[in-house]
Amino acid sequence: CEARVVNEPGNGAFVSPDVRIGGPLLVVRDIRSGRSQITLVATVALMFLRPGKMLSKIACFAASVGMGVMTQKAISALPHPVNAATGAKYLADDDDFDFSLPGHFPLDWQRVYSSRDDRTEGMFGQGWSVMYEVSLGRTPGTADENCMTFVSGMGRRLDMEAVLPGSGFYSPGEGLAVRRGEQGHWLISSDDGQFFLFEADPHHPQRQRLKMLGDRNSNCLNLYYDELGRITQISGEQQRPCIRLHYELAAHPRRVTQIYQHFPETAPLLLRRYRYDEAGDLNGVYDSTGHLLREFAYDENHCMTLHRQPGGEGYYYQWSWYEGPDDAAWRVTGHHTDSGEQYRLAWSLASRRLCVTDGLGRTRYHQWDAQNQVTAYQDEAGQVTTFRWSDEERLLLGMTDAQGGKWRYVYDRQGHITETHDPLGRVAQTQWHPVWHQPETEVDAAGNSWCCEYDERGNLLAVTDPLQQNTRYQYDRHGQVVQITDARGGNKYLQWNEDGQLMRHTDCSGSQTAWFYDERTRLIRMTDAQSHSTRYGYDDSGHLTEVILADGRTVNYQSDAAGRLVKYTSPMGRITRWQRDGQGRVRSRTDATGRRTAFGYDAYGRLVTLTNENGESYRFRHDVLDRLAEQINPDGCRQTYRYNALNAVTEVVFTGDRGGEIRHRLARDAAGRLTAKETADSRTEYVHDAADQLLEIRRRRSDAGETDAPEIIRFSYD
């Protein structure tokens, strides 16, 4: 089928926002052939998808619209994340990302910990999950077999409204579409084009387990289970990629102990090994060489009390049981680290309020609503930011920042943001494709627009910029770009190998660059357009150790167990070394001549001293919000900084060793843009357009007469 969905109001072609043509999909008929199931749902089905509800006691901890630094601080009670509304501990960062195997559908292995995930039969023990353990089960407390609960890859439970066979709905708040086939098979798809296909779990009659993951281009990963219902293999097309899971603990037979990558022609490769305590909780993660990468400990309630980084820094948690108007659960009440960082968390559930006090005596407050959405945040300086959410979809409708600036967000009926209003009254707009949940037209605050066109699988076909310049893309059957045609008609070509890795790039002039990989899919050679080759070598843990340049010279790298650079040897044999602390921060750098630069930090990770190669020391002082407040140079001179409520610098004072001062004042608008700079000898003003581009700089000296013209520099843009 080569048909395309076109939405071109200017040409009289409209697609109603109520109609789903060829896109968000339904298994209209149950089929038994493996890969064709995803192919069918990704290309054939036609249906109307009405908005529907998914309810959860735990708001999504992932980023939402408006998720900036301030929003992240508001929703997390601690730098090492604990949800400010639920008191739950989360881990989902790179330290627990075990591996990623290339493929047309890459196989990513990200472990996620949530103390609110009380499932006990998972492969890593209570609290832990990977995306391949998503499931559907009968909603507790209901006898209606059409009401199911989806357990996501983050361990969140989403209670769904009833779905009859042959029907489905779309949840704007979660960005998920749910469909149920005529024979009862379930499919859940996300806005990013990922599909989860479920099958009946033979060991649990009221549950559906994951059978296949796929995307819009019919790439997929298949899951295989043993007679005990444990995942034993996950593999893509032609077994690329392919992993096999091993379970070796008699006391805890559902805990995975080793994961191997399998290859078509070579021996299997151990990827990770996992260790457990007597209670069956994950307490150690090892790489293929036996290096301990992560360490964990828990209390008798399976709540995490320790996680340790590869460098050795320990993070500790204390817990208490709380019963409030919204839930009853274990919440984090204390946290400290080996380096001295300390926090106390005081929960007032009746008023839905949290007070966090650190070891320096600083306090901040978090307020939330009945849906566990943070509604107000007061920082350590007493500045308040407030948030306004929609009732059902939990979409951020507005935010008032600490300076009083108001942000407002407008959404379409599918939950996609269509308008962003900033404190200056500017509006950025987005129109979304009615099928693929991707931006179709984006208009910035200055009225510049970018238009996107998609093919029948949701791949980007063309982008037209504000100058009406058009860039077009062509794809292979896996959705990989094979040709790019730029606005001048020049063509670039790309070729991919069977593991989905780029093999060759041909530019508009016909020059080629080629990439070569080993059996473990690691890059081992790159040949440029002049036929010069650069080669790469690795250690058993997969860390880069050697680069052989085209002229034969060699660069060497040495990493610690966490993959962080600790030694560099240049082609001339000159060695630079880095010493790191338990959190991976650089403590010292020693160059090839033996000169040393040292860095000192306080318990909260703030740089407090820097000693250069000559032994001269710089000192740094920070304010209550961890912003740099003062720098003291080796000669006694100092710079002092002041900030506004949005953390933008508003004044810099330079003080000499004899006490003289030079003061620079900076003025900013509600959006944080610099509008004026005032010094003792001049005032400089800055003018921006609606797209934040600098249009004019106007400078007038303090001693200028009334008739003296200011110095002006103007800028223009295409």
Overview of the structural elements:
This protein is 2% helix and 45% strand. It has a domain of 110 residues. The protein contains 2 helices and 60 strands. It has a 55-stranded mixed beta sheet that branches. It starts with 33 loop residues before the first helix and ends with a strand. It comes from Escherichia coli O6. This is RHS repeat protein. InterPro entries: DUF6531, RHS_repeat, T6SS_VgrG/RHS, YD.
Unreliable sequence segments: 1-34, 39-48, 61-66
Whole-number average pLDDT?
A: 90
- Which geometry do the CA atoms define? globular
Largest sheet: 55 strands, mixed
Please state roughly what percent of the residues sit in beta strands, choosing from under 5%, 5-15%, 15-25%, 25-35%, 35-45% or over 45%: over 45%
Structure classification? mainly beta
The count of β-strands is: 60
| Helix content, binned percent | under 10%
End-to-end distance, in Å?
40 Å
Determine Rg (CA atoms, Å): 29 Å
Query: What is the number of helical segments per DSSP (H or I, 4+ residues)?
Result: 2
Question: Main traits of this protein?
Answer:
about 725 residues; mainly beta; 55-stranded mixed β-sheet; three-stranded antiparallel β-sheet; 2 helices; globular; disordered N terminus
